[in-house]
Amino acid sequence: MWNKKIALAIGAAAVSVLAAGAAQAQGRDLVVASSATYAPFAFENKDKQIVGFDIDIVNAIAKQQGMKLRIVNTPFSSIFASLNNGDVDFVISGVTINDKRKQSFDFSQPYFDARQLIAVPKDSTVASLKDLKDKKVSVVSGSTGDDVMSREVGKTSPNIRRFESTPLIISELAAGGVDAAIGDNGVIAYRVSQYPALKTVDDASFPKEHFGIVVRKGDKALQEKINAGLAAIRADGSYNVIYKKWFNQDYKPQ
């Protein structure tokens, strides 16, 4: 009986790992999670359609690889649980590749070069991360910005104010609820450009980062398919066209 239970558990795990591959074999759409509060990477346009750099990239990969996708707007705070629970097949949502996340998930090759960026009021004297030690700072919960501040002042510090999205951390800053906000460079720069009273501060000590597409641990078939599509759109110039559309410049590796 015990051995039978073990065999059943192993079989269930194998089915979960192979689910995405089976989905493609059966022709069903793959479900992709993206937090659509992250312009210009993913956001809702006036018609409530999810658009952005991430969306164009994943659609180009899917077209190249013959995959059918259904993109669902998922809060970043629950995006990894949705993947683990099998509610979605993979994630593209400005997710930074790091060692902590790689323990639980597998990633595609990098599709965007990033770093952290600080936002502050224009009259602020903050010039680096070190200047935020005794200040209130808003971050997206579970993001790289959250990790940065947690390392700097301690994860339980009351000065870290956690929110579900980048628009919320910037609006909190603009309203005077915090002294600064930290997030990924592309989205912070985009949001700050909408607030004349704010500016960005680039700390050279922030390490280079890379965004990756996230799949469940062990889903090698889907990971390889995504990587093949990404390599193809880089090679045929499609990637650069998309990059220029959203960032108004040609792509240049960091």
TrEMBL record:
SMART domains: PBPb, PBPe
Lineage: superkingdom: Bacteria
GO MF entries: ligand-gated monoatomic ion channel activity
Keywords: Signal
Domain Solute-binding protein family 3/N-terminal: 29-250
Signal peptide extent: 1-25
Domain Ionotropic glutamate receptor C-terminal: 29-249
Positions of transmembrane segments: none
Gene Ontology CC entries for this record: membrane
Protein name: Basic amino acid ABC transporter substrate-binding protein
Organism name: Comamonas koreensis
